[in-house]
Write a structure and sequence with these properties.
The chain is α/β, with parallel strands linked by helices. The protein is 30% helix and 27% strand. The protein binds beta-D-glucopyranose (BGC).
Length: 257
């Protein structure tokens, strides 16, 4: 058997409410090389503290070139516009520029769910899927990434739709399931309400369900109901890191995003 020549390897980071994860991705085939490294997200999760933690993590990864960083924020042209589950001091921060100075490398900064969606569309559950696909990540919040014929509309913040008079993510995220000690049957009732509302508004062909909880899809998947096709994410908790690395390669990023 001839060995495949090594592909392009880039680093990806995923800033979450409780942990920052990092890894190296082979961009040709979406393989995570050497597993995930992670550190707890500094509290409070201010720009200074988080950027310093990202710089330390990036040093542990043996790759040159640009770094992709996903975070739970709307990002426009490298500027952070919102801050959910991280310190509000991020709002207005020139995140890409500051991160790039700290890491001494070019940085592509993007929304974490957009990153996860890019990975799933390129190598995972959304591969070769045309039409409208919505990637959902269930974690501390609910992240969304909307694709039409494989093209991303960045920064959709549909975890903040109103459901039962509150932000949907305060009703149906994976964090809420743990905090309220909901079993899968009760949590999935809430997720089904959310899927119904999303379907009523966007009529997707496919929902991809991701976030670390999707590793347990076999347990709760049979309880899910939607008029759209439901697919478990292929990468579960790794999609954000893989997709951030993919974005660093320029894939999926509009020039103005
Ligand atoms: C944020 C989104 C993020 C999602 C998942 C939401 O609270 O507003 O930007 O994608 O959480 O982390």
């Amino acid at each position: 058997m001839t060995a495949r020549p090594p592909g392009v390897v880039l680093a990806g980071l995923d800033i979450g409410g409780s942990a920052i994860k990092a890894g190296l991705a082979d961009i040709d085939d979406g393989l995570l090389l050497g597993g995930l490294h992670s550190v707890p997200t500094p509290q409070p999760a201010t720009p200074d503290a988080v950027i310093a933690a990202c710089a330390d993590l990036a040093k542990t990864l043996d790759a040159d070139g640009p770094v992709g960083v996903g975070m739970p924020s709307v990002i426009q042209r490298g500027i952070v516009r919102t801050a959910a589950n991280i310190d509000p001091a991020w709002i207005g921060c020139e995140g890409a520029r500051r991160m790039s100075e700290a890491l001494a490398r070019p940085v592509v900064l993007l929304n974490d769910a957009d990153a996860a969606g890019l990975a799933e569309m390129r190598w995972g559950a959304g591969r070769n899927t045309s039409g409208v696909v919505i990637m959902l990540t269930f974690g501390t919040g609910i992240g969304t990434a909307l694709f039409n014929d494989g093209v991303l509309l960045p920064n959709t913040e549909l975890g903040h739709l109103t459901l039962r008079g509150m932000d949907a993510e305060h009703w149906a995220s994976a964090r809420v399931r743990t905090a309220e000690k909901l079993d899968f049957a009760h949590w999935v009732e809430r997720v089904n309400d959310y899927l119904a509302e999303m379907h009523r508004l966007f009529w997707p062909d496919v929902f991809i369900l991701g976030g670390a909880v999707s590793a347990r899809f076999a347990e709760f998947g049979p309880l899910l109901r939607s008029a759209a096709e439901l697919r478990p994410a292929h990468f579960a908790g790794q999609a954000g890191v893989l997709g951030a690395a993919l974005a660093a390669s320029g894939h999926g990023m509009a020039r103005r995003s």
